[in-house]
Batch of 3 targets.
Target 1
Amino acid sequence: MMINWIHPPKNSDVAKLIDCYWFLERPEETDSNPFPKLNPEPAGHLIIAIPEQTYHYDIESDRLKGKGSHWLYPYSKTLQMDHSHGFAIIGVKFHVGALYLLNQEPQQSVADTIVSADLNLLFGTEGINEIDLIELAKQDPQRLCTKLDEILLPWLSKVEEDKHYQLTTKALPLLAKTPIAQLGELLHCSQRTLERSFVRVTGFTLKQCQSMNRLEALITYL
């Protein structure tokens, strides 16, 4: 996916759950691939788009489509996007497992799913205008990041971590260099307890998440 820009949150409390904000725009007339593919991704994204903006995602034989802002939940399968028409979208990328803490439907952890999102209903506020946010993303990315921090902070500050999330967040940074079979001992719990908590929070096994992270690291390197 071609990303016009990508920035981390400015607020440290928001950054505990949000990895980054990104913006992607494709003009109606362009030579870029109209059907890009996304590799499996263990992190969830909130996609902000104007209400009239259509979206299409193909997951194997299923086509998930709709209009406007939506959740792109973590996905274990390759997604093909339909970019045959122009668009502009803002992405809010959450840390792996962060969606587990959020009070929303469907309940986490959910994978390979697209769900429409009403931003004002989601954040318990009024006056969020997707058109204004998209325009700000084009004109002043840093101001948009500050604005998103302000919108997200009251919502994210309500979450409470449980033992499953805490154990999962300890395991995640170890996946890159530690054999999975050694993680339970290293984190002072049984391997079964670790696996159950990890699947509960992320929707994936330790092995699945490790494989997705390694694939992403390889692609980035290449």
Note: Residues 141-156 form the longest helix (16 residues).
Target 2
Amino acid sequence: MLYLQGNVMGPPLPRWLGTYEAELHEVIRKTISQRIYDIILVVGSAEGFYACGLARLFPNTPILSFETTIMSRWQQRELLRINHVRNVEIRGKLEVQEFLRLVKDKKSLCLLDIEGAELDLCGAAAVPYLGKADLLVEIQASGRYSPGEVLNEIRSRLGRSHRTQILNPVRRNMAELQARVGSRWTTEALEQAAEEHRGFAQQWLLS
């Protein structure tokens, strides 16, 4: 995938190096890519890393990409353009009722990265609509709830209809990365470049 130069939402170097959110690489490659979906929703899509990547992986599947930030939506249009992607529709904020309408009775993939609003889209009222949905949720604090509490709450809500799996942080394979970039980078510089600078151990919920 061709990628943007300049600032994006979060450090760009891990995206350029191919190490960004490496926790998801295997599950996307070995599990998600083998499935067939009626629709894919990327909620909190920023500059389009996943919207564009999934569009390339599923070129015949309609993808709805939701992002509230105007600049990020502009960057996303540019990312889709340089990658010749045409099956993504970019939208603004996704309301809960619209989300439920979109996933009802459809085999869908929903990637949620919405800065703590995951509990809204995975609320108790939403669970009956999510029976045919595959969910990939980035876990973050939400109001008075810690990330751990958010994770436990979503797992509890989805437990009756979904098998859930926690994706924990993984170490970047620096030897493989060093072999790929060659001698242009020192090991120390490469380690810093691959760092996402989150300040906490990121977890994802797959269901």
Note: Residues 47 and 72 are 5 Å apart (CA to CA).
Target 3
Amino acid sequence: MSISEKRRTQLLAGPYTRLLAEHEGAVADFYATLARAVTGAKDFWKDLAKEELMHRIQIDRVADKMVKGEWRFQRPPYQVATVADSIEWLNSRRHHVEQDGISMRDALKAAMEVETNMIEADFFAIVDRDSPTMMEALTSQAINTRSHIKRIQHEARRLKWRIFGGRLKRPKGP
């Protein structure tokens, strides 16, 4: 007995898309926690949290297209445990921030780590890359994530910080 391509996609894609949507939600929750915890940076973190919720909606749209059989699922290059581990780390870190607070520098470092890991692990590579429409959806997610990296870097530069290292030193002299 053979299983239809549509049903196969539904069975395989469901767990991946639910996990990715959960991950985007965990990132949004983490950023919302940072908005409450980091003095003077509420709007910066709230904006990033809102965008992460939009990413979650985009993943839900991709999942709907897969369930309807419009798009084909492709097994991603990463292990599912990678996403699950990231969710666990985000929840643990969020709890830590709620309990102990966090500096802006550490918040920026944590956010940079989250966003960079998503790009490096290619979290959004779950659709068949043969279709230009599907590739556009993947590219959009990756572009948004890279945009977050740039915004985090910009914020660090605005504060005259290196994200990984000490505070920038101004040259001495006239």
Note: Residues 165-174 have pLDDT under 50 and may be disordered.
